[in-house]
Design goal:
Length: 259
């Protein structure tokens, strides 16, 4: 049986764009929840918060703790947890870890990377009532070498179509398309009944996802598809420096802030 939030998201296809953003903790999640359809606790937290050079270093325990915090801030959006590397290598491992993730964090769904390669795993999870989001194109857990766009060669294009179809046929309710060429994103989005959520994959996707820390200007990401909507570092810097100068000059705390 499909959760109502997921049904609503699927219904948005061809009607209204789906908004997805990441959150790693309660305070940001509370704000994002007011605007997003999907809040994703992405394993991008490995590079964003822990400076890891690969998401492969992120483990399940870290994902569970961050998702528990995010859960406290998410009231209306669909909450999705990224299953980290080496937690879904076979059907039983995937089911055991996904069940644990849902039980411990009360999230609504899991996300796994891969297409044809993980189709049997997606099918097994869905059969066991675990809603699954797919992720193809650039898949950071398995990428070798530099990040680049996907879909340039005929071989890559064919693989993307096969991967997308395999995920839909296995029961995934949506698919993240990362860094796929515009025309490919358009064709895949037309081909599938389930929504595509793009990241660097053009306006032709059914929705868009970005890392919240990137759009806030909390990271120094210099990636073509990242748009910085505010320079929050500047604002934080101003507040912290005002606090410092008031402490030094004994302007803070005044009587108002004292017992
Ligand atoms: O880890 C992540 O945050 C992601 C999204 C950016 C799609 O997978």
């Amino acid at each position: 049986m499909m959760n109502n939030k997921i049904k609503k998201i699927i219904k948005k296809k061809n009607k209204s764009k789906i908004v997805c953003l990441t959150a790693y903790s309660k305070n940001i999640a509370e704000i994002v929840d007011n605007h997003a359809d999907i809040v994703l606790v992405g394993d991008s937290l490995g590079s964003v918060l822990y400076n890891y050079n690969t998401t492969r270093k992120v483990n399940l325990k870290m994902m569970l703790e961050h998702t528990k915090s995010v859960r406290m801030g998410v009231k209306k959006s669909l909450l999705v947890i990224d299953m980290p590397y080496n937690t879904y290598r076979n059907k039983s491992e995937a089911l055991k870890n996904s069940k644990l993730a849902i039980k411990e964090t009360k999230c609504d769904a899991v996300k796994v990377e891969g297409g044809v390669r993980v189709r049997h795993i997606v099918r097994h999870l869905v059969k066991n009532k675990i809603p699954v989001m797919g992720h193809i194109g650039i898949t950071p857990q398995t990428i070798k070498g530099k990040f680049k766009s996907v879909g340039k060669t005929e071989k890559e294009r064919k693989k993307l179509f096969k991967d997308a179809k395999a995920l839909e046929d296995s029961g995934a309710f949506g698919i993240v398309l990362e860094c796929t060429y515009s025309d490919i994103s358009k064709k895949i989005s037309k081909l599938l009944k389930i929504p595509t959520i793009g990241i660097g994959a053009s306006v032709h996707c059914d929705g868009q996802v970005l890392v919240t820390d990137d759009i806030l200007g909390l990271t120094d990401a210099k990636i073509k598809f990242v748009k910085k909507y505010v320079n929050i570092k500047k604002i934080i810097n101003l507040a912290v420096s005002k606090f410092k100068s008031e402490v030094k000059s004994k302007k803070y705390p005044t009587k108002k802030y004292s017992y």
